[in-house]
Amino acid sequence: MGLARKLAESLRRYMLLLTIVTALVAVMIGSSAPTVTKIPPGTFKGTVMVLAAATIFPSMILLRGERLGPALKQFKYILIVVLYAYALSPLLAYLLSALISSPDIKMGFLVANTVPASSASIGYVMLAEGNLELATACVFTLTALGIALIPTYLYAYASMMALSVPVAEFLKPVLAVLAAPLFVGQLVRRYLIRRRGSSFIDRELKPYLSAATILMMLTLIFVLISRKAVLIVRRPYTTLEIMGTYSVIVLATVLIGLIVSRSLKITYREHQAIMFLTITKNQSVAAAVAACGFSPAAALAPALIPTIQPVLAIAYLHTEKIIKSLLAPRNTLQKIA
């Protein structure tokens, strides 16, 4: 048990470094010995779907569904998160996707900014001392709505780009990678709680599940990037397009969120839960949807974004004092002055 906890802590501590190293190794191997590129498209899509589901499944066991009821009563905040995730993020992505030249990569970028946050995003909320119960309710809500909204958005994107893709191609990865892990994961959680108690999951099982999530995510990133390594080497500016555009979206979201939170007098704890669930996306779901619903090139953005997403999230985390001062009640600010 001690070894599993140490492994999980080490993987989490060095997750950013491991992600960057994995991406670099994938580029080197994929460009010099392109084995992954020779995998038939059907087999590749199936592999991506399995890896994505395996990445998400452990976090769905950790998701505290038993706390959902009371947290869902915070309707105002949940509505704001839904609007940010399924209105603001897609709108910003669509407007800024004009900076990306390739239509296939642009589609993958839109997918990457339409998927909901994962339960792993709650980790950032915890580090920021945000409202964890609200974050849990929001993840459940975003995931449930995503089952219906993501295929709808993707169909609209494909129509605007004159791409002919059957609706079933959108539904299959969403159901396989989002709905199935959520349903089965919560069933497993309920079973384990009845047999061993919730403390068994949170104390004993969590290190194994956390380590499995990170390792599967790194494997998925390796497969996706090595598939398009030749493109990355030949067109390095494509990588800069994706990362730069995504960074602009995160910065714009944070600024808009601060303005709205100050206007509505949203407190720091609730604001941080809202923000981290908006600026961090479940790129495993995005990768599966993009690769299975569109061309393999569409999966490039969901593969590259995890290398920059933790950097932006951690950078925002370090602005804690500034955020607290901006969201402090006016009478508190007057006392400080």
Compact description:
With 337 residues, this protein is mainly alpha-helical. Helix content is 82%, strand content 0%.
Number of strands: 0
Query: Could you say what the CATH topology is called?
Result: Na+/H+ antiporter like fold
Which CATH class? Mainly Alpha
CATH architecture: Up-down Bundle
Strand content: under 5%
Structural class: mainly alpha
Low-confidence stretches: 331-337
Shape: globular
Give the domain tally. Answer: 1
Helix segment tally? 17
Helix content: over 70%
Rg (C-alpha, Å) = 20 Å
**Helix and strand run:** HHHHHHHHHHHHHHHHH
The rounded distance between the terminal residues' Cα atoms is 50 Å
Averaged pLDDT, please? Answer: 80
Key descriptive features of the protein:
337 residues; single chain; 17 helices; Na+/H+ antiporter like fold; mainly alpha
Walk me through this protein's architecture.
The protein is 82% helix and 0% strand. With 337 residues, the chain is an all-alpha fold. It has a single domain (2-31, 43-327), classed as Up-down Bundle (Na+/H+ antiporter like fold), CATH 1.20.1530. The N and C termini lie far apart (50 Å).
Topology summary:
Blueprint: H1 2-13, H2 15-32, H3 41-62, H4 68-71, H5 75-96, H6 103-112, H7 121-127, H8 132-160, H9 167-196, H10 198-227, H11 229-234, H12 236-264, H13 268-279, H14 283-293, H15 300-317, H16 320-327, H17 330-336
Helix pairs in contact: 1-10, 2-10, 2-15, 3-9, 3-10, 3-14, 5-8, 5-12, 5-13, 6-14, 6-15, 7-13, 8-9, 8-13, 9-10, 9-14, 10-15, 12-13, 12-15, 14-15
